[in-house]
């Protein structure tokens, strides 16, 4: 199974060239602020681009309407797209789980404070092969600023260590783009936009 992984396109999806694959995965922040027009434009693109057999989508902290107006935006999701929100799906025998949750930061969408966030990670089941979250785990592709301060989630890091998925796809921290392998898990920050919100990073292909 060939996965094509992207994240953090922020409304600039038309500038992204996708390689062929079986499953297209987007790890959130497909809009700037979740406005309805932007949501429609992205979903039209995501549901029809390429010849992927499956398309897996989670929201991110910028996709505000997906938390605040789910009854409006979720019906717009094409039938060809599997939207995950603390939920999972089996594709060709591969178990996917997705969550949009990130640590609290200026009250964006799906932000959770420390006392709440662990409840979401506890939902991730054993046997998950591909974990898709919007944010990174602590100290893995999560550095920001000149000093590369780690801003990922420690609770998520502990959960990934426990569940040990084959692949963990995320974004959120644009500067963290790239791969890391540890304890049998391939960690992948698939952010397409760089720190200046320019499309400067490429989709990543992963063969399972």
TrEMBL record:
The lineage of its organism: Bacteria, Thermotogati, Deinococcota, Deinococci, Deinococcales. It comes from Deinococcus antarcticus. It comes from the Bacteria. InterPro entries: Calcineurin-like_PHP, Metallo-depent_PP-like, UPF0046_metallophosphoest. Residues 1-175 form the Calcineurin-like phosphoesterase domain. This is Metallophosphatase domain-containing protein. SUPFAM superfamilies: Metallo-dependent phosphatases.
